[in-house]
Amino acid sequence: MAGVSQIKTVNGEGGYVLEDVPHLTDYIPDLPTYRNQLQDNPAYSTVEQNFVNVDDAVAQKVVVHNNSPRGTHFRRAGPRQKVYFQSDEVHACIVTCGGLCPGLNTVIREIVCSLYHMYGVNKVLGIDGGYRGFYSKNTIKLTPKFVDDIHKRGGTILGTSKGGHDKSKIVDSIQDRGINQVYIIGGDGTQKGAAVIYEEIRRRGLKVAVAGVPKTIDNDIPVIDRSFGFDTAVEEAQRAISAAHVEAGSFENGIGVVKLMGRHSGFIAMHATLASRDVDCCLIPESPFYLEGKGGLFEFIKRRLKENGHMVIVVAEGAGENLLAKHLQSMGLQDASGNNLHHDVGLWISQKINDHFAREDKMAITLKYIDPTYMIRAVPGNASDNVYCTLLAQSAVHGAMAGFTGFTVGPVNGQHCYIPFERINERQNQVVITDRMWARLLSSTDQPSFMSPKVVAQSKKNQGRPRTL
């Protein structure tokens, strides 16, 4: 992207590389600093070390060899001894963009409460309706009382939308309202927009910190360990899989097909399958499969029905795209966030299975198709995700108050870090089908890998020498 600043790097001994995030002082020199009032906060009075050391960093790779270079690191998240904003000068705003995800309201709540209770900030606005809300909708005043129980609700109290990256209008609104901290919650498209907004703010020389909280139910954000809402999604997917198992088991040659989220990444389908133990076959975008012929899906279905009398198939929404007929695809159309639109693979594969067994094998089957997509997206976060959302929100607030900007937050090897937007936006995280996790799934379901000899040979070639476990 033209005009985007390069990642700040610091090189040290032994191959140590710190991929740092921008700071307000990079383009506004001689900014005054202030004493962090967390030192006087009763909640932190018993903490042995209130503040993160300035040199603390977290390694991206935790498994190394004795002669490995130290590798890439990220700046550790947490409160700093000096801050670059006084409490009464902070005017923060929060915006949510993209699709719904369990835990959105928890992140909003904890950003508000962290600003109020940790740093004494009492001016926080909610931007209504995503990025467009900066210049086309009203704002919502957010207080601890207003957000007190929103974590118990699904969705987002701020509303959301896709697209709307008119950076000039957005930054004009930020400047006109006197906003100096912007918290942006959203997925890869949203974080790309956040990077553009940060660059425009930097170009104008504004003292405005831009902090991102990565959100994707599909868990396809790179670098970080996982995205919030993923645990809840996997847990809720169990309900649909259990229902499909009950339906399939109640009929002779019963087949339950469950479509789960995963446009480009099959993490929800994979983890839900491993957790369930009721799934006979899992189909994901990263692992091509075929229907007809020896070793194909139809042959496996027939064999499993003869063995067990019923079966459950989990399919991620982006699986089998290469098999969909061209006239059924969306002719390359994109949604407002720039994502390719997809035909419903669950309906398509259900129809293909029905047609095959009616015409080819003359085998009477009973197929039930379940699509819980929006039921999963709309639920509130579970206990695990609520704790995780709290940590994300607090890390974002600590970073913004310390003057960091142009960053997103997330755990790397269990430690929360500040990560440059460029690293989050460079690619999508995907299931590695030559990894042991996918092998565990194949072993659990006893399904074929559907990988052709050519694909297997290429995978081994890419891997190089065999590695011991």
From TrEMBL:
Molecular-function GO terms, alphabetical: 6-phosphofructokinase activity; ATP binding; metal ion binding
Active site, per annotation: D218 (proton acceptor)
Compartments where found: Cytoplasm
Record-listed Mg(2+) binding positions: D188
GO biological process assignments: fructose 6-phosphate metabolic process
SUPFAM superfamilies registered for this protein in UniProt: Phosphofructokinase (SSF53784)
GO cellular component: cytosol
Keywords noted in UniProt: Allosteric enzyme, ATP-binding, Cytoplasm, Glycolysis, Kinase, Magnesium, Metal-binding, Nucleotide-binding, Transferase
Chain positions recorded as substrate binding sites: T216, I217, D218, M261, G262, R263, E317, Y374, M375, I376, R377
Site annotation Important for substrate specificity: residues: G189
Domain Phosphofructokinase: residue ranges: 93-398
Annotated EC: 2.7.1.11
Main location: cytoplasm
Positions with a binding annotation for ATP: G99, K162, G163, G187, D188, G189, T190
Pathway(s) annotated for this protein in UniProt: Carbohydrate degradation; glycolysis; D-glyceraldehyde 3-phosphate and glycerone phosphate from D-glucose: step 3/4
Cofactor: Mg(2+)
Regulation: Allosterically activated by AMP.
Catalytic activity of the protein: beta-D-fructose 6-phosphate + ATP = beta-D-fructose 1,6-bisphosphate + ADP + H(+)
Membrane spanning stretches: none
Function description: Catalyzes the phosphorylation of D-fructose 6-phosphate to fructose 1,6-bisphosphate by ATP, the first committing step of glycolysis.
Assembly notes: Homotetramer.
Family of the protein in this entry: Belongs to the phosphofructokinase type A (PFKA) family. PPi-dependent PFK group II subfamily. Atypical ATP-dependent clade 'X' sub-subfamily.
Family annotation (NCBIfam families): PRK06830.1
Protein name: ATP-dependent 6-phosphofructokinase
Annotated source species: Salix dunnii
